[in-house]
Amino acid sequence: MIDIRGLTKEELGEALAIYGQKPYRAGQVFTWLHKRYVSSFDDMTDISKDLRNRLKEDYYIYRLREADVQTSHKDGTKKFLFELQDGNLIESVFMKYRSWNTVCISSQVGCDMGCRFCASTVGGCVRGMTAGEMLDEVYTIEEKTKERVSGVVVMGSGEPLLVYDELIRFIKIITDESGKNISARNITVSTCGLVPQIKRLAEERLQINLAISLHAPDDEKRKKIMPVAKKYPLDELIDACRYYFEKTGRRVTFEYSLISGINDGKEDAAKLSRLIKGLNCHVNLIPVNPVRENGFKPPDRRFAQAFKNALENFGINVTIRRELGGDIDGACGQLRRKHV
Ligand code: SF4
User: Fold this and answer.
1) Alpha carbons 212 and 214: distance in angstroms, whole number
2) Is the Cβ atom of 111 under 6 angstroms away from ligand 1?
3) pLDDT tens-place string over residues 170-202
4) If pLDDT is split at 50, 70 and 90, which confidence band does 145 have?
5) Which domains does the chain show, CATH number per domain?
6) How many angstroms does the Cα of residue 333 sit away from the middle of ligand 1?
7) Is any ligand 1 atom within 6 A of the Cβ of residue 264?
8) Which atom of ligand 1 lies at the shortest distance from residue 121's CA?
9) Assuming Cys at both sites, which of 14, 54, 59, 72 could form a disulfide with 4, CB separation 3.0 to 4.6 Å?
10) Each residue of 214-231: pLDDT tens digit?
């Protein structure tokens, strides 16, 4: 049995052709699945009973179960704990901005990448998620909140480029105009810096945003907080970002968690500026969010502002990110496989 929600419209067309169905049927079924979010083939009222029964024999419709939800009293951010079909738990976050809503989704159950500032990696990685599971994070949140979601950031638990094929499938399906139809420009994929996969993603020429978890201005410091730096040094990573821009025309975002006394000094700002100078990019500064296991602390507000000013003086585009959901451990680097 296959989760039918993980099929692109083209694949659905091929699958239905085996049953002797005309191509337009794929659009109809796709819309039931990805626009109306049906949970049962029987809800597809304009599809013949015969076809619905055939579909039931070969496919299932996968739905997440909401195990818990926490709402931020500060900003209305909601953190959902979802149970997957095999009992594993993941977290996803609904964030409300002034004029749009965004969902931050997980792509793996846990994570193996070992970034020291991140709670998602504490228990390692159990498994990668499927496109159907990732889609249902968005769909279920839209249903539960009764709010329209117009942006997705793949920035929750997991390294999305390690589930590359499922990620591409997820993007193709969620941007399809017969379904949820989210603009590719409103989708951000965040990676800790897997160079070969970044180049491969560039070749897809999707109009999505690429965010790089950078967090340090040189290899020496980066290796101390991000084990991936031992495999892919910064010069290779920055070259891959340049390649991404050349192929897609999309500006790259660098995520930089400011950790007091570790990477927030004047010299760090100067090194960072030299590293990314000339690259069409944007830097998001994130005062690090507390995670019990690592003891990292965010810098004082004045230091964060001074770091930002220093980058601006070098001509770098930079913002200090407004963090949502900090009071429910729903901010960057705080997601886990359970609520604690
Ligand atoms: S920051 Fe991302 S890649 Fe690093 S451990 Fe956390 S989830 Fe994994």
Assistant:
1) 6
2) yes
3) 999 999 999 999 999 999 999 999 999 999 999
4) very high
5) 2-60 (1.10.150.530), 65-328 (3.20.20.70)
6) 7
7) no
8) 5
9) 59
10) 999 999 999 999 999 999
